[in-house]
Specification:
elongated, 3 strands, single chain, mainly alpha, three-stranded antiparallel sheet, 38% helix
């Protein structure tokens, strides 16, 4: 038998272990789903494109309430599990906002996920330390000297600010 054929035969015998979600307690997640008011209002929202169904858990005997509109079940995540899920996926390689959102949204669902993930990624200390962002600053402008005092007036405006007496700029 040729050496390359023998090598290829070894690859065909390799067993692949299933990736587990051991970081997440599915029984506790299922129990939290039943007590979650946010899920109840989310399920009753007729404007939502999400389709919620009870799906058997892959690793326990419980059922999870999942969105099945994408073709693969995505469990609804109650508030107290969201940070754990985010940290699990984000801490793998500290991807940016879009990649972190994509990793999580392909597996789980919760309201305002994009905003939540964006806030958490932008506040990640490890990302702030290691990622260099371009800080472009425009140079200060130069002004021609006026012919006489107060013949030209320059004004700096800032805003919009919180409204005060109907005004929102200073």
């Amino acid at each position: 038998m040729a050496p390359t054929t023998q090598s290829l035969m070894h690859f065909s015998r390799i067993e692949v272990n299933q990736i587990s979600n051991s970081f997440l307690d599915f029984e506790a997640l299922s129990k939290a789903q039943l007590e979650d008011n946010e899920l109840q209002s989310f399920q009753n929202d007729e404007k939502s494109s999400l389709v919620f169904k009870r799906v058997p858990s892959p690793v326990s005997a419980t059922e999870l309430i999942c969105d099945t509109s994408t073709g693969s079940p995505r469990p609804f995540v109650p508030h107290n599990f969201r940070r754990t899920i985010f940290e699990h996926f984000h801490n793998l390689a500290h991807p940016g906002v879009a990649a972190s959102f994509q990793l999580i949204a392909s597996r789980y669902v919760w309201p305002n996920m994009r905003k939540t993930v964006k806030d958490w990624v932008q506040n990640c200390i490890a990302c702030q330390r290691s990622k260099v962002h371009r800080h472009t600053k425009t140079p200060l402008g130069t002004f021609a000297l006026p012919d006489a005092r107060f013949s030209h007036i320059h004004v700096d405006l800032i805003g919009p600010l919180p409204s005060s007496e109907g005004k929102s700029f200073a």
